[in-house]
Amino acid sequence: MDTFSTSPPSRNYDLLANWYDLLAAIWSGGAIRAARLWCAGHLDPEQDVLVVGPGTGEDVADISSRGAHVVIIDLSKKMLEATLARCRQKGGLAPEVIQGDFRTEHSIKNQDAVLAPFVLNVFPSDELPHIIAQLQDYTSDGGRILISDFAPPANFLPSRLLMELWHGIPMAIFHLFTGSAWHLIHNIPAAVEQAGMVIVERKRFRVFGIGPTWIEAIVVKMRDTV
Ligand SMILES: C[S@@+](CC[C@H](N)C(=O)[O-])C[C@H]1O[C@@H](n2cnc3c(N)ncnc32)[C@H](O)[C@@H]1O
């Protein structure tokens, strides 16, 4: 019997839509933006692409301006509106929009690529396998999942503690404000490998361009399609 239960949907992202990019820039010194745009840069034109939790969608505007057919799904109406405004500004195809919880949206299939930019961190660790399975479900055979998020925790204890502190401050704020999960830093590369996937490309990003490489983007495929 499946005893897994889905954590409650996050709230209040509408109130963050005008501030989110500024907060991310202040906290990461551009690393969050660089990682999500690195993933976008890996997509080919004219692909079918699903973006879960696009936020304000700079990466979506980039992908759709290069001719991809993009579906975006987010709980927040304001985030979706911000993404659409960006896409209009940049030109290109308008994305298909779904306002809802990507964990329970089962109509989407066969995407060439699924992007999860800074979204897995919203959920508790024990939900990760189910979320990764859901992302796999959206992806076509041979398709790719591109994830940008916090890099896995360092092995060296002092570095790990500093990293947890850096991750913990915004997590505490988001936990109180949006109801996102309270957790230690996920080991996303380990979770995707446990889910039968292989990392085919990865890149670390330095905080403020010169600091520690605490942000990472990965491109993953099913093991038997590599
Ligand atoms: C931390 S923000 C990430 C935003 C952006 N992708 C980025 O790269 O910074 C999380 C985004 O995921 C959305 N979100 C959170 N939980 C969701 C869910 N269960 N289904 C769909 N969207 C969700 C939020 O509304 C928000 O836009």
Features of the shown structure:
single chain, alpha/beta, 7-stranded mixed beta sheet, 8 helices, 23% strand, globular
Q: Outline of this structure?
A:
The chain has 226 residues and is an alpha/beta fold. It is built from eight helices and seven strands; from the N terminus they run H-H-H-E-H-E-H-E-E-H-E-H-H-E-E. The chain has a seven-stranded mixed sheet with strand order 3-2-1-4-5-7-6, sandwiched between helices.
Would you mind describing this structure in some detail?
This protein has a single domain (13-151, 186-225), classed as Rossmann fold (3-Layer(aba) Sandwich), CATH 3.40.50.150. Helices cover 38% and strands 23% of the residues. It has helices spanning 13-16, 20-28, 31-41, 58-65, 77-90, 128-138, 157-178, 188-194, and strands spanning 48-52, 69-74, 96-99, 111-117, 139-150, 197-205, 215-222. A 7-stranded mixed β-sheet has the order 3-2-1-4-5-7-6, with helices on both faces. Strand 2, helix 5 (77-90) and strand 3 (96-99) form a beta-alpha-beta unit. Helix 4 (58-65) runs parallel beside helix 5. It starts with 12 loop residues before the first helix and ends with a strand. The structure holds S-adenosylmethionine.
Number of helices: 8
Named at the architecture level, the CATH assignment is: 3-Layer(aba) Sandwich
The name of the CATH superfamily reads Vaccinia Virus protein VP39
Sketch the major β-sheet.
7 strands, mixed
Helix proportion: 25-40%
Count of separate structural domains = 1
- The radius of gyration is 16 Å
Mean pLDDT: 94
What is the CATH topology?
Rossmann fold
One letter per element, helices H and strands E, the order comes to: HHHEHEHEEHEHHEE
Strand order of the largest sheet: 3-2-1-4-5-7-6
Any low-confidence stretches, pLDDT <50, length ≥5? none
Distance between the termini: 32 Å
CATH top level is: Alpha Beta
Q: What global shape is seen?
A: globular
What binds here, in terms of ligands, is:
S-adenosylmethionine
Number of strands: 7
